[in-house]
Every structure is written in C-alpha cells, then in structure tokens.
Amino acid sequence: MKTKPRVKKADANPKNTQDKILQAATKVFAEHGYKDATTRMICSEAQVNVALVNYYFRSKAELYKAVIGALFEDVAKPMMSIPDTVRDDKTWRAAMRMWVRRSLAICAALKPPEFWMARLMGMEECVPSDMAQDIEQKFAIPMRRCFMRLIRMALPDDDPVQVSLWCSTVHAQSVVYAIAKPGWATRFCPPQLDMEVWLDKVADHICGGIFCRLSFQRTVD
Fold first, then answer.
1. How far is CA 166 from CA 39, 89, 120, 137, 151, in A?
2. Which of 58, 62, 124, 134 gets the most CB atoms within 10 Å of its CB?
C-alpha cells in the first residue's frame, strides 16, 4: 500500500503543496519547455522534494497536463462564451473584436499567468512536445471550434475551406506574438505608445481586415 511521503511542517497542507508544485511547474515549463524542464528544476523552484511531485502528480507528463489544464481554466476558458453574445451584426463585430483583442492580450502578455500560457502555447506550436496530441484534443480543438463558430456566423454557408482559411490566418496573426522572446509585441510597439494602446491598435487593424470582407449572416450552434 502506497504511503504518503513525509513532508515538512510548512508543506503539511496537501492543497497548498499541490498548488505550490503546480505554480512552480508552470514557471519552469514556460521557461524551458516540456522536454528540457526536469522534475528536479520544478522541485527546486517549489522547494519540495521529488517524492512529493511523484506522489501528487505521478509523472512529469501528468504534471504538464495539469499545468496546461489549469492555465486553460484561468486564461482561455472565459473566451469560450464569447460567441453566445452574438445576436446581430453589431454584437458579432463586438464579439470578434473581443476575441482578437483577448487573444493578443494572452499572446503578448508580459506577466503570468497569461505570459506562461503564451510561452507554452508558442513552444507547442513551434516544437511540439510528446503531450502535443493530448493538448490538441483537450484544449486547442475546443478553442478552435469556438472561434470557427464566430467565423461561420459571417459566412452564408458552412464552407469548411473558407472557415479553415479564416481561422488559420486570424490565429496566426495573434499567436506569432507568443513565439519570439522577447515577444514581437515588445519589438514592434512604438516607443511612444503604451503597450495596451498598441494592442488595441493591432486588434483594430486585424479586425479591419476581417470586417472588410465578412459581416454577420446568421447565428449558429
């Protein structure tokens, strides 16, 4: 029968210990990527022993999945309800602008947890980890389908080619900000502009291109 590892008094609360490990793992994975991050790095960051990581999360892979899941709940999941706000062209444009601006905020973030989310997703886009397929199924596909729903509202029919073209090009314009380090938002933001003002302008620029060619046609489920 598996026995619980002995812990220091400061770590006696299991929930606090799990949260501390999860936060440390998020930081380490975001800085080093799944492949190069080690359990020992995470333990050092969390100031816990390896046995505790294995006890609570069983493996590095399971810990990585837990990190992605927690970030998704905190950062990305709130976006899933955006299409539900659409009733007409005005609300569709507002929903599209909200989606694009929120995506940019995540991808260009300089502070956690959005920064960690951006780094991890950027690395998964460029150098997929062994967990890429699981992440794709649980998180990336639901988000993509949600955005596809917004796009489909602006098309007269459900042409899968047009839906995919729009989704991939709009997605690329946002996710590119998450790939470089330092981020592209920092590189391109004019020195006289506040970053939030710059991201507003980028969102308006992207949406301007969308609204030139697309307009609300119908609500879809």
1. 40, 18, 24, 21, 7
2. 124
